[in-house]
């Protein structure tokens, strides 16, 4: 009996142990299961996050994909692009970026900020080149990104980016959509001259460029102009025009122009030469001269032709901002080619003249042509030219004929047909030039900016 009781107790104890073991194993399994669930959820969250990041990365990557396109250059200084389909396209020459919703033809040109200086008032300053853009279907061109000449670095948060839009109704400061380290994005409201402007309380840092020109003459000495500019197409175009219209003749010396350190507004810089040279002025205080009609420069003079090195130094830090070595071959080859072309031209003219005209006839023709070229243009001739001008006549008036925006606005205020407006613009130029309102003078002003057809008409007036 006692043995039976003992066996019964053992059996009950075993049952309890087994039940306890089963319960504990169940709890353990539930705990492990929960851990497994948590691990799976964490892995799933990581996968989802990775997918979201990857999707965002792909979206940003596709957003930043821009097809590089090279424009055709027209005779009047304009660029011409034919875009075949919807997309984002970047001009390889100017850096402009266009967003279009379908195929489009876009024309654009770099303008001078100095013509619109009255409209850039403090605290606003120029941020990059100003462009005149037109499109065959304005609604197709949705956004334009303008290159800026600023070095942002840590100063980006202190700046406000907008654009100056020169409308037919007058100038307006319009908001930008976005900006990057290189561009300011603007949603197209209408097509007319537009350029980026900024507002900041901090000193402005610019991406700089140094542009070199050599005086062409018969003297053995060397004379150069050295321009220190922002890397801004409008500024650089102004320099080119200033050199072109100078009383002296120049050739551009091709050296790497980009400064290896940013130029800072208000800081002083000195140009030095390793060879003995006269440099005037000795130093300059840098300012962005985009709005100025007259651009400042260093004049470098060497009595004897030789190789020499020029360096631009920031006075405060004594760091070299830009450096270039100039060699005789940089300008001798140009002079040789120029002389060769001149000899060929003179030879061809002499050959043609001797075959077609006697000496007396040739002299009389030159005398007559000279008198004709000095005659002031008539109203009839101005109207002939006016009828051939395109939609860019206002820009031509401001950029080439030195008229002000207010002159154009006064002309447009008159309720006349557009060809009459063009004629009145030409007439105002003629009045301003007085006795110099000649075909030759107008030809010299327009030759790089108007169509081949207008050039032919002007040549017929000479």
UniProtKB/TrEMBL annotation:
Q: Which residues form the Death domain?
A: 378-462
**Principal localisation:** cytoplasm
Identify the SUPFAM superfamilies for this entry.
DEATH domain
Looking at the UniProt entry, the stretches that span the membrane are 35-62
Q: Name one GO cellular component term.
A: cytosol
Would the keyword S-adenosyl-L-methionine turn up in this protein's UniProt record? Answer: no
Q: Where is the FIIND domain?
A: 60-340
Q: Name one Pfam family in it.
A: FIIND
- PROSITE patterns (UniProt xref): DEATH_DOMAIN, FIIND
UniProt keywords, alphabetically: Cytoplasm, Membrane, Transmembrane, Transmembrane helix
What PANTHER family does UniProt report for this protein, alphabetically? CASPASE RECRUITMENT DOMAIN-CONTAINING PROTEIN 8, THO COMPLEX SUBUNIT 1
In its UniProt entry, what is this protein called?
Caspase recruitment domain family member 8
């Amino acid at each position: 009996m006692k043995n039976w009781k003992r066996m019964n107790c053992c059996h009950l104890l075993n049952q309890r142990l087994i039940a306890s073991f089963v319960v504990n194993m169940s709890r353990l399994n539930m705990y492990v299961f929960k851990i497994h669930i948590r691990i799976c959820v964490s892995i799933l969250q990581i996968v989802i996050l990775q997918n979201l990041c990857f999707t965002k990365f792909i979206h940003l990557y596709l957003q930043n994909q821009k097809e590089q396109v090279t424009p055709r250059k027209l005779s009047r200084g304009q660029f011409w692009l034919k875009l075949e389909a919807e997309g984002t396209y970047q001009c390889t020459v100017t850096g402009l970026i266009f967003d279009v919703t379908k195929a489009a033809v876009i024309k654009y040109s770099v303008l001078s900020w100095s013509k619109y200086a009255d409209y850039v008032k403090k605290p606003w300053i120029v941020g990059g080149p100003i462009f005149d853009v037109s499109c065959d279907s304005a609604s197709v061109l949705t956004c334009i990104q303008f290159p800026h000449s600023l070095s942002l670095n840590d100063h980006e948060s202190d700046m406000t980016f907008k654009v100056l839009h020169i409308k037919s109704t007058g100038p307006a400061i319009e908001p930008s959509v976005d900006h990057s380290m290189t561009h300011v994005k603007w949603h197209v409201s209408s097509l007319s001259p537009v350029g980026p402007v900024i507002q900041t309380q901090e000193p402005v840092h610019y991406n700089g460029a140094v542009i070199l020109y050599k005086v062409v003459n018969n003297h053995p000495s060397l004379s150069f102009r050295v321009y220190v500019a922002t890397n801004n197409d409008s500024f650089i175009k102004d320099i080119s025009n200033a050199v072109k219209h100078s009383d002296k003749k120049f050739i551009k010396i091709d050296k790497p122009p980009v400064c290896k350190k940013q130029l800072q507004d208000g800081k002083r810089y000195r140009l030095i030469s390793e060879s003995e040279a006269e440099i005037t002025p000795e130093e300059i205080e840098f300012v962005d001269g985009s709005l100025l009609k007259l651009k400042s420069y260093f004049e470098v003079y060497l009595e004897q032709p030789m190789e020499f090195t020029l360096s631009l130094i920031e006075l405060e830090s004594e760091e070299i901002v830009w450096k270039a070595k100039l060699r005789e071959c940089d300008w001798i080859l140009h002079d040789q080619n120029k002389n060769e072309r001149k000899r060929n031209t003179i030879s061809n003219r002499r050959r043609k003249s001797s075959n077609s005209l006697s000496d007396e006839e040739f002299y009389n023709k030159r005398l007559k042509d000279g008198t004709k070229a000095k005659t002031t243009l008539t109203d009839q001739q101005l109207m002939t030219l006016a009828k051939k001008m395109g939609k860019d006549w206002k820009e031509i008036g401001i950029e080439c004929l030195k008229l002000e925006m207010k002159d154009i606005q006064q002309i447009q205020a008159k309720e006349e047909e557009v060809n009459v407006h063009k004629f009145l613009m030409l007439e105002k130029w003629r009045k301003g030039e007085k006795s110099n309102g000649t075909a030759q003078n107008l030809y010299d002003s327009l030759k790089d900016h108007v169509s081949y057809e207008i050039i032919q008409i002007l040549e017929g007036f000479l």
